[in-house]
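Lab notes, practical 5.
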Amino acid sequence: MNTNDILIVGAGTAGLTAAIYVQRAGRHAVLFEKGAPGGQIVTANEIQNYPGYSSINGADFAYKLYEQATSLGAEFIPGEVLKITPGTDDVTVQTARGTYVGRALIYAAGASHRRLGLANEEKLIGRGISFCANCDGAFFKGKTVAVNGGGNTALDDALYLSRVAKEVYLIHRRKEYRAEQPLQDAVKKTANIHPILDTTITALHETSGHLSAITLHNLVTQQDTELAVDGLFLA
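Output from the prediction step:
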């Protein structure tokens, strides 16, 4: 059993930032992370909205945060947290590597990828469905893909894929995208990105165990259409 000052569950942007402030305050931070340090920001193709960086790759950004936190003395414990038990004056975190006791706990476990909740979805992950354009985009060189979402991640993914894929369909359930204006402007200027608004995906179709098409439902006209795609990126 180890006694530490502050325990932090999650080593994404929030957790690593918390560790930096804990160390600078003269306390000891212990970070628990079951994946790679950095969290979902690792998969970002390009970050342009963080102070101090006009442009930086997500993986590079995550590494700089990790490097800064650990250089200050923060301790990184890889592996999944199995149980958290609050006490009167402390808190206990149980992992497969051991049990850790701290004076306080910061919970920064982040979020998981949102699913569509459709039949065949889990089966087709890795067989046409992906959550990371930066990771899997190369598999769709010269092919037709769709991106589902309307925020910064979705538009950033679409822009990245436009340089790899032949055609990119950008599907969003609302009448306009929620992403920052510079990303929207860039999408409008990209000839092979095709916006599809007021639309949801209602079915996934497969051929020989691989995604081959999606059914689109227009929320205004209530009409359904089928779109042939080689890949679908959920953002």
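Observations recorded by the TA: Helices lie at 13-24, 58-71, 121-124, 133-136, 152-162, 181-188. The mean pLDDT is 93.
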